[in-house]
Design a protein that fits this description.
hpI Integrase, Chain A, 3-stranded antiparallel sheet, 6% strand, single chain, mainly alpha, 8 helices, 45% helix
Length: 169
């Protein structure tokens, strides 16, 4: 989806970064459109995540490719306080983000219709499938209640692999 967004339209680089940041940091669309430059410390590779739905804020680390893309985006939209902004320097709307993700999903050839919240869920399943501790995922996602986080671990049957190795015939 990121590659598809990159080559689409005048704002391909912005849209690709939007999808990347949304996925890597498990952002809700409302959190994404409210991102401001003062939440990012690019020199120290830190991102201060403010969560919606009464979630716990946290600090995430940024990867090198994100930092480079964010610096480039900031140069392109130096007059805006919002990270992902429209031509008028205001924040993108939820509808605009939805259209960006849907278009990227179609161009990427996904079999199902993509939407922004799928990126958040995909990150949860990715972390759980790597064996990341459920409490760590809870903190990363800003969930106050672990009940919302265990959804990602309940659906992964590979977590049971090797449980029966203690007995032999």
């Amino acid at each position: 989806m990121i590659d598809a967004a990159k080559i689409t339209g005048r704002y391909g680089a912005r849209d690709a970064l939007l999808i990347l940041v949304s996925y890597r940091h498990a952002l809700r669309v409302g959190e994404l459109i409210e991102l401001k430059w003062d939440q990012f410390d690019l020199d120290n590779a830190l991102f201060h995540v403010n969560r919606l739905k009464n979630g716990n804020p946290s600090v995430h680390y940024l990867e090198g490719d994100e930092i480079r893309a964010l610096r480039k985006l900031r140069r392109s939209y130096s007059d805006s306080t919002f990270v992902f902004c429209s031509e008028r320097q205001g924040p993108l709307t939820k509808s605009a983000v939805h259209k960006i993700v849907v278009r990227a999903g179609l161009l990427a050839g996904l079999e199902l219709s993509a939407h922004p919240h799928m990126l958040r869920h995909a990150k949860g399943f990715q972390l759980a499938s790597k064996g990341v501790d459920t409490r760590a995922i809870q903190a990363y996602f800003g969930h106050k209640n672990i009940q919302h986080t265990v959804t990602y671990t309940q659906l992964d049957p590979t977590r049971f692999k090797g449980f029966g190795k203690d007995l032999r015939l």
